[in-house]
């Protein structure tokens, strides 16, 4: 802003330095007319330069105001991003925890086929033991049949008197063998039953332990999956909210930058006004220089006075053409001059 | 007294706020989410909106942006219960950057609501 304000100051200095009319012409009608026309032109140019200085200051204030707003807004968003980074770290921790728990779920499912196979082997063993038990029962049935037949034979032999002692010894031997076989069979059955019972009890114990572990594992799996779901929902909501806030901030930033750019356009308008003022001053200086050489109150001097009035007219018309381009606002100037593009 | 819109998907909380505000002589209008809120605001413009940040369909942040886009901006009081990551502090700071005049972390008292509304209504 400073160069433009300095230029306006110098131009106004030039105006005030040459405000007096040529001394030789003063007091004559033509000379007075020239002085009036020159002063009118000076006042007009002075007024325009006053406007330029005021507008430039307002524009500078508006730009500073907008840039300060942009800076404050950007600083607020930076603080927001810094503080909300903690949330981002929390999401990362939750997801890592969920992944660790899901790793335990994977181990559980990996061990499941081996456990199923072991359970199957246990059940097969129980099945074999039961099948063996069936064979032992057949032996006992066979022994029972032999015992029955021997009892009949013993009864027949007993009916034969005299010879009973020898015959009954044979029967007694057979009965002892029968008893021996029955005893061995009973022991085998007892052992088989014990094995079967142990196998079943072991299977039940294993199943009970495994079931409890499986329930724990399933509960942990459910917890891990739920936590993962919540982490995902939180993450989605978290980033969505951040995105909304940052998008809104971006829109405000874009609008703010557009405002600042709009204000900088005003400097081009100022340049145009100052250039027109410089041209007018140059023409005024040339006309005055020309008038100095003329005879006071001569027709030529009167002609120069009309020329000065015509110059004022053309300057006023030129400014009127651009009058709608810039509007200075009321108030503290925070809004800056309003630029109408043309 | 003012017309206050309450936007919250939790019907129980809406009822509670209606009762709190009625004691102060305010009229109220309710909406269960952002979509309902925008539609209701087009019918009747409230003096202020008390809005929850976590809602289905259209959450608080989107609703605030939509209100502004549709020229329905009014003084706002944001409220949030928050979750593990999307905490009340995060939600209320987000709401403040979007233009909310005041924020309330759930649960809050009638006096806190009164203070927040006074701040919003100026």
Would you summarize the structure shown here?
The complex is a heterodimer of chains A (342) and B (122). Chain A has 342 residues and is an all-alpha fold.
Number of strands of chain A: 2
As a percent range, the share of helical residues of chain B equals 40-55%
Number-wise, the strands of chain B total 5
Q: What's the pLDDT, averaged over the residues of chain A?
A: 77
Coarse structural class of chain A:
mainly alpha
- Major sheet of chain B: 5 strands, parallel
Distance between the termini of chain B: 13 Å
Widest β-sheet, arrangement of strands of chain A: 1-2
What characterizes the major β-sheet of chain A? 2 strands, antiparallel
Question: What oligomeric state is this?
Answer: heterodimer
Account of the 3D structure:
With 342 residues, chain A is mostly helical. Chain A contains four helices and two strands; from the N terminus they run H-H-H-H-E-E. Chain A has helices spanning 2-17, 29-158, 164-292, 299-321, and strands spanning 326-327, 338-339. Chain A has a two-stranded antiparallel ribbon with strand order 1-2. A five-stranded parallel beta sheet of chain B has the order 2-1-3-4-5, with helices on both faces. The model of chain B has no long low-confidence stretch (mean pLDDT 94). Chain B is built from five helices and five strands; from the N terminus they run βαβαβαβαβα. In chain B, strand 3, helix 3 (60-69) and strand 4 (76-80) form a beta-alpha-beta unit. Chain B is α/β, with parallel strands linked by helices and 122 residues long. At the A-B interface, helix 2 and helix 3 of A face helix 3 and helix 4 of B.
List the helices and strands and how they pair.
The complex is a heterodimer of chains A (342) and B (122).
Chain A: H1 2-17, H2 29-158, H3 164-292, H4 299-321, E1 326-327, E2 338-339
Antiparallel strand pairs in A: 1-2
Helix pairs in contact in A: 1-2, 1-3, 2-3, 2-4, 3-4
Chain B: E1 3-7, H1 11-23, E2 27-31, H2 34-43, E3 48-52, H3 60-69, E4 76-80, H4 88-98, E5 102-105, H5 110-121
Parallel strand pairs in B: 1-2, 1-3, 3-4, 4-5
């Amino acid at each position: 802003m400073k160069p433009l304000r300095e230029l306006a100051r110098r131009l106004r200095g030039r105006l005030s330095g040459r405000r007096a009319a040529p001394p030789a012409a003063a007091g004559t009608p033509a000379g007075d007319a020239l002085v009036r026309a020159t002063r009118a032109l000076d006042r007009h140019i002075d007024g325009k330069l006053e406007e330029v200085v005021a507008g430039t200051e307002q524009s500078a204030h508006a730009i500073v105001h907008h840039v300060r707003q942009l800076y404050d807004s950007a600083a607020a968003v930076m603080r927001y991003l810094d503080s909300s980074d903690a949330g981002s770290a929390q999401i990362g921790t939750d997801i890592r925890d969920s992944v660790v728990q899901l790793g335990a779920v994977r181990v559980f499912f990996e061990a499941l086929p081996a456990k199923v196979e072991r359970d199957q082997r246990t059940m097969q063993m129980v099945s074999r033991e039961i099948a063996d038990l069936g064979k032992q029962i057949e032996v006992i049935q066979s022994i029972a049949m032999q015992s029955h037949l021997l009892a009949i034979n013993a009864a027949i032999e007993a009916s034969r008197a005299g010879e009973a002692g020898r015959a009954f010894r044979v029967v007694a031997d057979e009965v002892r063998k029968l008893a021996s076989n029955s005893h061995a069979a009973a022991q085998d059955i007892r052992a088989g039953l014990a094995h079967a019972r142990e196998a079943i009890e072991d299977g039940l114990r294993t199943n009970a332990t495994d079931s409890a572990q499986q329930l724990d594992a399933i509960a942990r799996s459910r917890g891990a999956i739920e936590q993962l779901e919540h982490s995902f929902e939180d993450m989605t909501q978290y980033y969505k909210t951040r995105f909304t806030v940052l998008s809104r901030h971006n829109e405000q930033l874009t609008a703010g930058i557009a405002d600042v750019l709009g204000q900088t356009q005003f400097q081009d308008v100022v340049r145009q006004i100052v250039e027109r003022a410089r041209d007018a001053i140059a023409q005024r200086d040339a006309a005055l220089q020309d008038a100095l050489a003329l005879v006071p109150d001569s027709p030529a001097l009167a002609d120069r006075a009309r020329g000065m009035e015509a110059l004022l007219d053309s300057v006023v018309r030129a400014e009127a053409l651009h009058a709608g381009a810039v509007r200075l606002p009321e108030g503290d100037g925070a809004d800056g001059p309003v630029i109408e593009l043309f | 007294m003012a017309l206050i819109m309450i936007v919250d998907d939790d019907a129980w909380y809406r009822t509670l706020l209606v009762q709190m505000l009625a004691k102060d002589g305010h009229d109220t209008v309710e909406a269960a989410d952002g979509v309902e809120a925008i539609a209701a605001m087009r019918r009747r413009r409230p003096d202020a909106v008390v809005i929850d940040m976590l809602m289905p369909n259209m959450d608080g942040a989107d609703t605030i942006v939509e209100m502004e886009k549709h020229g329905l901006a009014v003084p706002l009081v944001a409220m949030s219960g928050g979750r593990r990551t999307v905490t009340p502090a995060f939600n209320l700071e987000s709401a403040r950057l979007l233009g909310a005049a005041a924020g309330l972390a759930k649960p809050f008292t009638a006096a806190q609501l009164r203070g927040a509304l006074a701040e919003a209504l100026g």
